[in-house]
Specification:
The complex is a heterodimer of chains A (about 250) and B (about 290). With about 250 residues, chain A is an alpha/beta fold. Chain A is built from 9 helices and 10 strands. The relative contact order of chain A is 0.17. The N terminus and C terminus of chain B are likely disordered. The chains are: A alpha/beta (about 250), B mainly alpha (about 290).
Chain lengths: ~250, ~290
């Protein structure tokens, strides 16, 4: 069964059509990487799945539930989907542990003890337990992003959306975050990942989708897309990436 | 990038609090302190000499600075000043709550809430547009005259209502500025975790917003504390009215100075308190070890 299905999704901001009919199917335990130039619609696609942006046309299914139907409870949908942003977006006025336990307590109704147990277990798993009482601005970018991932995981989501989670990091901090994601993939987490890290996408993705101008122009296993891209636009994009030394 | 924006505004808060604390001479060294002391001494002596050498000084001194008048009227004015403090404290609580409600109404997004937003805007415009003294006179003399059953007829009560209505307009705008200063990515992060709009507001947006507006909020506190003197225009005996009575009895103005000293005695500690709160918040957030 598919964990996530997009059916002809359209989204415009004013007269700017960002998504022009996206069809996408993500199976359970599948890791799908979205690649493409900036402005090709990757981030918007993720924000639409999480209902942070209302779509103009098309349908989105989470499991067998249509989340874009009239009257769907957006809060209930978001509870089932974790999203991690490029800029971390941790809550600066809360400690690491409070960042992680806020939603489990307020949204899922867990007791403080239950939420903290769950949070500490996750923090420990990703080597952040000793940072539990720090405020986010005391952490390195890599640590902040790992906390953001833990914060999303604490809700036990059935799907994770990662929006260029390493783009705001110093190069030496990228690996620690990618390792976390790799571990999640090995654990069977279903993920939809927008990324500029082509080497990472090649390693981790079950499938790679090349977005161009609001459409999925080409998709397939990473070996296909990276070694033998069919579309001229994909070839052009990958050539530029190689030129920049990013693959 | 979102977090960068957040950090910048934090830096701004820090900088602002440094400005508030600029009387301190940290990091200037002994030489800096010596220069500061010397230049202050020269300035004070110059002013004192200029004032006391002026032609009108003996008369001004008699009328304003008679220690006998000041100290004689002080106890009575201090007793009356208790009412000012009471009005201030009670009104402040209602203002903080009421203004927050207005600010939240005004920041509701979407076309559905347009009427509420419009009301909140109209309210803020009116409250800030009408002179406080007029509102106090209208309510203080008008509302008791209606003789409505179950409604207090005390002038102090209605003057308090007037102050709450006026100041809520200002404080709501301060809150709103704070709410708008929190980057939208914070709300997106909260909502993406499944928090409702109200939960996101309560847990994520307001705590950050209010922290940022503590200094301007305190400004309005100080304004309110001073404006409690307007209640005296209703004939209520508070510090200002009492000092007027004393002043009329002695034909000198020493009583006004006594009243002024009382107001300053409240407002200056308030200002220092904000500095302290800001500094404590900054220290708390930067506490802990270095980066791992």
């Amino acid at each position: 069964m598919s964990a996530l299905r997009l059916d002809g999704v359209h989204k415009s901001f004013g007269s700017n059509e960002v998504l022009r009919g996206i069809d996408l199917d993500v199976a359970e335990h599948e890791v799908v990487c979205l690649i493409g130039a900036s402005g090709s619609g990757k981030s918007t696609l993720l924000r639409c799945v999480n209902l942070l942006e209302p779509i103009d046309a098309g349908r989105i299914f989470l499991g067998d539930e249509e989340v874009t139907r009239r009257g769907a409870d957006a809060n209930a949908v978001r509870r089932r989907i974790g999203i991690v942003f490029q800029a971390f977006n941790l809550f600066p006025h809360m400690t690491v542990l409070r960042n992680v336990t806020l939603a489990p307590r307020d949204v899922l109704g867990l007791s403080r003890a239950e939420a903290e147990e769950r949070g500490l277990e996750l923090l420990a798993r990703f080597g952040l337990e000793h940072r539990r009482d720090e405020y986010p601005d005391r952490l390195s970018g890599g640590q902040q992003q790992r906390v953001a991932i833990v914060r999303a995981l604490a809700m036990r989501p059935e799907l994770m959306l990662l929006d260029e989670v390493t783009s705001a990091l110093d190069p030496e901090l990228v690996a620690e975050v990618l390792n976390v994601i790799r571990e999640l993939a090995q654990g069977g987490m279903t993920m939809l990942i927008a990324t500029h890290e082509m080497g990472f996408a090649r390693d981790i993705a079950s499938r790679v989708c090349f977005l161009d101008d609001g459409l999925i122009l080409e998709e397939g296993p990473p070996t296909e897309i990276f070694a033998r891209p069919k579309q001229p636009r994909t070839q052009q994009f990958l050539e530029r990436i190689i030129e920049a030394g990013r693959l | 990038m979102a977090s960068e924006g957040d950090r910048r505004s934090d830096a701004e808060v820090a900088r602002r609090s440094r400005l508030l604390g600029s009387l301190r001479l940290e990091g200037e060294g002994a030489r800096g302190v010596a220069i500061a002391l010397l230049s202050t001494a020269v300035f004070v002596v110059a002013v004192v000499v200029a004032v006391t050498q002026s032609a009108g000084w003996p008369e001004v001194r008699r009328v304003f600075f008679s220690w006998h008048d000041i100290s004689g009227s002080f106890p009575e004015i201090a007793r009356a000043f208790v009412l000012n403090v009471k009005i201030f404290l009670v009104c402040e609580v209602f203002i903080l709550v009421f203004a927050l409600m207005i600010a939240v109404l005004r920041s509701l997004p979407g076309p559905v809430f347009f009427p509420l937003r419009a009301l909140a805007i109209m309210y803020a415009d009116l409250a800030r547009g009408v002179p406080t003294i007029l509102v106090i006179a209208l309510l203080g003399f008008g509302a008791p005259a209606l003789q409505l059953t179950g409604v207090p007829t005390s002038r102090v009560f209605w003057a308090g209502v007037g102050l709450v209505l006026i100041y809520s307009g200002y404080v709501a705008e301060v809150y709103r500025a704070g709410i708008e200063s929190v980057h939208p990515s914070q709300e997106a992060a909260a909502r993406s975790l499944g928090l409702s709009r109200f939960q996101a507001l309560r847990r994520v947006i307001l705590p950050q917003a209010i922290r940022r507006v503590i200094p301007p909020l305190l400004n309005d506190f100080i304004g309110l504390q001073k404006d409690t003197a307007l209640v005296g225009t209703l004939g209520v005996i508070e510090a200002f009215n009492q000092s007027q009575i004393d002043s009329n009895a002695t034909f000198t103005y020493g009583a006004y100075l006594a009243a002024a000293a009382l107001f300053v005695a409240i407002t200056i500690p308030l200002a220092r308190l904000t500095d302290l709160l800001i500094a404590r918040d900054r220290r708390r957030r930067q506490a802990g070890g270095g980066l791992a």
